[in-house]
Automatic annotation (TrEMBL):
InterPro entries, A to Z: Dimeric_a/b-barrel, YCII
Protein name from the UniProt record: YCII-related domain-containing protein
Pfam families linked: YCII
Superkingdom assignment: Bacteria
Coiled-coil regions, chain positions: none
Family under the similarity heading: Belongs to the YciI family.
Residues of the YCII-related domain: 1-89
């Protein structure tokens, strides 16, 4: 089962301890084959919308900074519970905030 784990942007800047803990967590997930991809996201982005034959492109940002998605991880796990556990471990490392987890189909 694949899950896309999204993390909302934080108001605080990460310190050296956080970088070290995240590096160890990412290394562990990579070594176990769970982590498929990870990255940070440009807070501005752009939106593509269509209506009939018309396609429009609008530059962002679209939401308040505290609502914007700051990064992602794509993981492959055996169960929903395993995805939740990875999310819990991530939140314990980065501290207060919010993450979203969606199962990826197909």
């Amino acid at each position: 089962m694949r899950y896309l784990m999204l993390s909302k942007m934080q108001d605080t800047q990460p310190d050296e301890k956080l970088f070290a803990e995240m590096a160890a967590f990412i290394e562990e997930m990579t070594a176990s084959g769970v982590l498929l991809a990870t990255g940070g996201l440009d807070p501005a982005g752009f939106k593509i919308a269509s209506r009939g034959d018309e396609v429009t492109v609008t530059d962002g940002p679209f939401t308040e900074a505290r609502e914007a998605i700051g990064g992602f991880a794509l993981v492959e796990v055996r169960s929903r519970e395993e995805a939740i556990e990875l999310g819990r471990r991530f939140r314990k490392i980065v501290g207060d905030g919010e993450s979203l987890i969606h199962q990826v189909f197909g």
